[in-house]
Write a structure and sequence with these properties.
Structural class of chain B: alpha/beta
Radius of gyration of chain A: 21 Å
Strand order of the largest sheet of chain A: 1-2-8-5-3
Oligomer: heterodimer
Order of helices and strands of chain A: HHEEHEHHHEHHHHHHHHHEEEEHHEE
Mean pLDDT of chain A: 92
Strand content of chain A: 5-15%
Largest sheet of chain A: 5 strands, mixed
Distance between the termini of chain A: 52 Å
Strand order of the largest sheet of chain B: 3-2-1-7-21-20
Low-confidence stretches of chain A: 219-223
Number of helices of chain A: 17
Structural class of chain A: alpha+beta
Largest interface: A-B, 18 and 18 residues
Strand content of chain B: 25-35%
Mean pLDDT of chain B: 93
Number of strands of chain A: 10
Distance between the termini of chain B: 48 Å
CATH class of chain A: Mainly Alpha
Number of domains of chain A: 1
Chain lengths: 405, 465
């Protein structure tokens, strides 16, 4: 598929390390019509309002036929996962997935995982012993979320090498210019489906910890899910759990190493972690934009009419640096007041895993920066992943001078 | 001295008195300090407690998830105030600028903010209201007493009145596994706030959760035993129910009696009339410049709703109005801001989140824009003379920001665009079925005196009970 002029530049890997000048360019107009017929929305209030506008659909089947993209799930005979649906289907599936995951039915579930995850962090850091160079992505930021999502779902951690590649390929599927062929994505979808179907079947026969067992269609309170819904939901959570928190942790590390004054403060003041992580979610959001929404009707936004059926891209990272909303938006400032960023999106599709992501970052980052001594960036900018939507470093090599106990 | 210089002196060394130490009073005090007021600040409250939050009282507290004593409002900042708690204000002398207290003290002010709020309307027969087992629910003490009674496991609870408060109590009782009868004079629960169409959904919700809901009936008498304990309730349809607990949820009375004789436009029914800048009117309709009102007790004109004077018993309104009042109290005229908050409230009952924005009661038409009444998950949009005037949702609160914008922009009604979860191409407007507003009320409470325009004044007529 060919993209419009600006969206092609955003997708261009050459701009991956610093897309912010492009976003500033975009913000000159709240709504930009691209020559391929899609509309990019880049200013804070317009993005926020559209994300909460019932005339905007997350179901790409509402697009004009020429603007539709092949959905690997659909080709594999699966219903779309709830992120790609609208109410009432969305509310039913997300509600069912939430029952074992969070309040009101399971308010203690995530809290109960904290001890386990803190031990994982300690083990990962212990393995830094004796090294003078580490890759924060491969050695730390990636293994933690993977372990976490496996625990949350009840997926065996040792299967990770099997589904790592599938998750990567499928995450690329939401990218406007995926680094994978349609065939590769379809194969990944097939592989993950079979794997998850088998796992769900096994956990139905012998329940294990994690929400998959709680959702097993015949037994769980999520009885409203068909077996196919359940596979689609499990795949969504597994992929999202893999591909986003890794960016949050890596982006925070990178940002701190670029701001030594704030890093020193953080090391003396671990409670700074809470506002610090929120500021990273504003300043370097792990999900940069949402390119899959569609106008269900003509929508007037800031003087432009987005026509019915048009693809709409909500540029979260651009909105997060809108000077109309945030004072001095290009400054990284963990003391920022009223930081209502869009890093987790907003509205009914607000990130399902946000409480888990925050918890992981809050467990991981204070310990990381308490223990590593004199960390120094070895490459700036570091090499980035190809994905423009789920943007983050592919590697983050850091020199250290030992490890505190 | 110029008005600006006056304001400067006031900000530095003025005396501000806040009567009413609850949400609105506290937020106003915090705002005054945040905006640089360094004079003396006195907070007067008739309860012995520092400001606490009320929404949990009818929900978490009755369920035993939170202690009534743990609902203290979080402080945004230190307010460095003198607190006079457990003492009611008893009178206001506008000539000498003093508040008279029940203990005989007087407190002088340069600026007065009235945030005395409302109290629960009690059962109309005092001897019956005094029976052990008859409750109202408004204060922290009310909630603690009712919680203890519910925890003792009464065989049946009677809730009189199915507005939001009554429905929340009924919901909490069912969640505790108690048998509940709800008696409502209107045709359905919530009918006064949201109309009969939505009320019918609320009725179904109550019944499906095991509430014995009786509509179109009133309670005629509460009967006690010799020891003074509630035993039975008699209904207007001739039936009687054996109950040990009755919660009367018959709406609120604005706390204005202490202002009788002050010459302010204040009454228990309509509260304190004030302008959009929160300055109170005197009884002649002339605005004062040193007396302000905010929160449940205030009634002010709203341009979006034909300048109708709205009194709102809404948490968010109390906060916003208090902030505006505080700002305006220590500003010169041109810097003052209007209170244009869009009415908004929420409730949690029977597992459903109910939220409303705008003024549904003004609605002359209604469409279900998203979801369905049958699924008890929907957004209802209210129209008034062809524009959108309000919206109410059951488990759909996240959409209300959009409808709020429609209200603010006086968008045409009925809406004609496609939306997610819209079930019909063009939803058909129906009558929202509000009760007839022309039902008898308390009658006139003011009259004009004097003959020539220069001597005409307004005089209060004593309230008939």
């Amino acid at each position: 598929m060919t993209l419009g002029t600006l969206s092609a530049q955003i997708s261009d890997y050459a701009n991956r390390a610093n897309p912010y000048p492009l976003y500033a360019e975009l913000r000159k107009h709240p709504v930009t019509r691209e020559d391929d017929g899609s509309y990019l929305v880049s200013t804070y209030y317009e993005v926020r309002n559209l994300a909460n506008d019932p005339r905007l659909s997350n179901d790409t089947r509402n697009r004009a036929p020429e603007a539709r993209r092949p959905d690997p799930g659909e080709e594999a005979g699966l219903p779309p996962s709830f992120i790609f649906t609208d109410p009432p289907v969305h509310d039913r599936l997300r509600g069912a997935a939430n029952r074992p995951f969070g309040p009101p039915h399971s308010p203690r579930f995530l809290y109960g995982l904290r001890g386990d995850l803190a031990r994982v962090v300690t083990d990962l850091l212990d393995a830094f012993e004796g090294k003078d160079e580490v890759d924060i992505v491969d050695d730390f930021a990636y293994p933690l979320p993977v372990t976490a999502i496996c625990k949350v779902l009840g997926v065996p951690r040792e299967d990770e090498p099997r589904f790592h590649g599938w998750a990567d390929a499928l995450a690329a599927g939401i990218d406007p210019q995926p680094g994978y062929s349609e065939e590769q994505v379809a194969t990944a979808r097939q592989g993950l489906n079979v794997y998850l179907s088998d796992l769900i079947e096994a956990s139905r026969r012998r329940p294990r910890p994690g929400i998959l067992s709680a959702l097993a269609p015949e037994t769980g309170p999520g009885g409203g899910m068909t077996p196919a819904d359940l596979v689609a939901t499990a795949a969504l959570l597994l992929i999202a759990g893999h591909e986003t928190t890794v960016n949050l942790i890596a982006n925070t590390t990178l940002t701190l190493l670029r701001h030594p004054d704030i890093l020193r403060r953080f090391q003396n003041e671990p409670d700074l972690a809470v506002p610090l992580i929120e500021e990273v979610l504003r300043y370097e959001p792990p999900v940069q934009f949402v390119p899959w929404t569609t106008a269900l009707d003509d929508i007037d936004v800031a003087g432009t009419t987005i026509p019915k059926g048009a693809p709409v891209w909500l540029m979260l990272a651009a909105a997060n640096r809108d000077p109309q909303r945030f004072e001095d938006p290009d400054r990284f400032d963990p003391d920022r007041k009223d930081n209502q960023h869009l890093g987790f999106y907003t509205g009914i599709h607000y990130c399902f895993g946000a409480p888990l992501a925050r918890m992981e970052a809050l467990i991981a980052l204070p310990q990381l920066f308490r223990r590593i001594k004199n960390p120094r960036l070895l490459e700036d900018p570091p090499p980035y992943r190809t994905n423009a939507v789920l943007r983050g470093p592919r590697h983050l090599p850091v020199a250290i001078e030992g490890l505190a106990p | 001295m110029s008005a600006e210089a006056d304001v400067d002196v006031l900000r530095r060394e003025g005396r501000i008195v806040v009567v009413g130490a609850s949400l609105a009073g506290l937020r106003a005090a915090e705002t005054l300090r945040a905006k640089g007021f360094t004079g003396s600040l006195t907070m007067i409250g008739d309860e012995p407690y520092e400001p606490y939050d009320r929404p949990p009282l009818s929900k978490q507290v009755l369920l035993g998830r939170e202690e009534a004593g743990d609902t203290a409002l979080p402080r945004r900042r230190d307010i460095d105030a003198e607190w006079i708690l457990g003492v009611a204000a008893e009178g206001l002398d506008r000539d000498t600028k003093r508040v008279r207290l029940a203990n005989g003290d007087t407190v002088p002010y340069d600026r007065l903010l009235i945030t005395t709020g409302t109290r629960a309307r009690r059962w109309f027969v005092p001897e019956q209201a005094a029976l052990d087992g008859v409750f109202v629910l408004r204060t922290r003490d009310d909630a603690a007493r009712l919680y203890r009674k519910l925890a003792a496991g009464p065989s049946r609870v009677l809730v009189i009145g199915a507005g939001f408060a009554g429905s929340e109590v009924a919901s909490a009782c069912r969640e505790r596994g108690l048998e509940v009868t709800v008696a409502e004079l209107g045709p359905a629960p919530l009918v006064g706030a949201l109309g009969g169409v939505i009320g019918a959904v609320a009725a179904r919700l109550q019944r499906s959760h095991g509430v014995d809901l009786r509509c179109g009936v009133s309670v005629t008498a509460l009967e006690g035993d010799r020891a003074g304990r509630l035993r039975r309730a008699h209904l207007s349809d001739g039936s009687a129910i054996d109950v040990g607990v009755a919660v009367t949820a018959l709406g609120a009375i604005r706390n204005t009696e202490w202002l009788d004789g002050s010459g302010l436009a204040a009454g228990p029914r309509w509260g304190i009339a004030c302008d959009a800048g929160c300055r109170a009117f005197d009884a002649n309709g002339i605005v004062t410049d040193d007396i302000y009102a905010a929160g449940d007790v205030a009634r002010s004109p709203h341009p979006l709703f034909d300048y109708e004077f709205l009194a709102l018993e809404h948490w968010g309104n109390a906060v916003e109005q208090a902030e505006i009042a505080a700002h305006n109290m220590i500003c010169a005229g041109p810097d003052r801001r209007p209170h244009l908050w869009l009415p908004m409230f929420w409730s949690a009952q029977f597992g459903v989140n109910i939220k409303s924005v705008g003024v549904p009661t003004l609605g002359d038409q209604l469409v279900i824009a998203q979801g369905t009444l049958a699924e008890e998950r929907f957004v209802a949009v209210y129209g008034y003379h062809g524009r959108v005037i309000a919206a109410a949702s059951f488990d759909g609160a996240k959409w209300l920001g959009f409808y709020q914008e429609q209200i603010e922009n006086a968008a045409p009604f009925p809406p004609e665009y496609r939306v997610v979860d819209g079930r019909t191409e063009k939803p058909q407007p129906v009558d929202p079925e509000f009760p007839d507003p022309h039902l008898p009320t308390h009658g006139a409470t003011v009259r004009l005196t004097g003959h020539s325009p220069s001597e005409q004044r307004v005089e209060f007529v004593p309230r008939r009970a």
